[in-house]
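Fold it.
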Amino acid sequence: MNTQIKTVLVVGQIHPAGMEVLQANASLKIEVISDPGAPIPVSSVEAADAVLIRYGVMTEAHITNATKLRVVSRHGVGCDNLPVDALSERNIPVTVVGPVNAVSVAEQAMAMMLALSKKLVSYDQSVRKGAWGIRDSLAATELSDKTLLLLGFGRIGREVAKRARAFDMNVLVFDPMISAERAAAEGVVKVEDWRGELGRVDVLSLHLPLTKETRGIVNDEVLAAMRSTAIILNTARGGLIDEHALHRALTGRMALGGAGIDTFENEPPALDHPFMALRNVILSPHSAALTEEAARRMGVVAAQNVVAGLENRLNPELIFNRQALKI
């Protein structure tokens, strides 16, 4: 690396192991914005040669005069908090951490699926209240022989499928990027019209990026086509589900179903968010990827991407916008 001092802006706290990667490089000057709710100063971005971002939103205004900027490293895999198109026009690579959180997120999806199918929350609350008779309600169900539909069959979707198959579930996948042959090799069935399959789906699990096309993809129409006992899981991105539509369904026709929600349209959600009062919904604070193991891996890879970006040796597989770059 050029011995000239380079400035790295770290937005949001990352695992100490990731900071050690940066601090071990004597040619890097590191500025950290640790408050997850603090706005990102435009002046800090303009002074940076690299940005490693976990929290917050960068806009096109941040990079208009950021003439030194050479790489933006995302501490995660979703880039909807970044002006990716504008960065691509400037030929600035945006990197992601790859599959380092896939196992953690897949385990979270399975945990929610099991908790909802076994009615763990309501059974737990009933026992604590002395309502032992709930055992005779037969409300709990098995995962075996149930049908799981995965929207998206990337790294996380594949990990979910692997675990679901161990529970003898029938796994359908919708992902235009994979072939039927590849799906079959993974022990799953590719479907072309996922909406047409909803009537036989017991669990719908979302593993999609948030785009103009996917925003609100689970809406009133989709929910109306699902079984009344179906479970919906979102461990992907907030905004994929029309939350008002889901609330209407779970308090009406799908009251015997449920949902596991790790990501919200607005985070953190308001304390009076309608999901808060529903016993057939399990909520988590966008934490599916936040295990000790995954946090370490994410921090290290995000930091390594910064160093690699400044040294012009990025792994192409970790460049989110590589197809738009002139490289």
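Residues 292-310 form the longest helix (19 residues).
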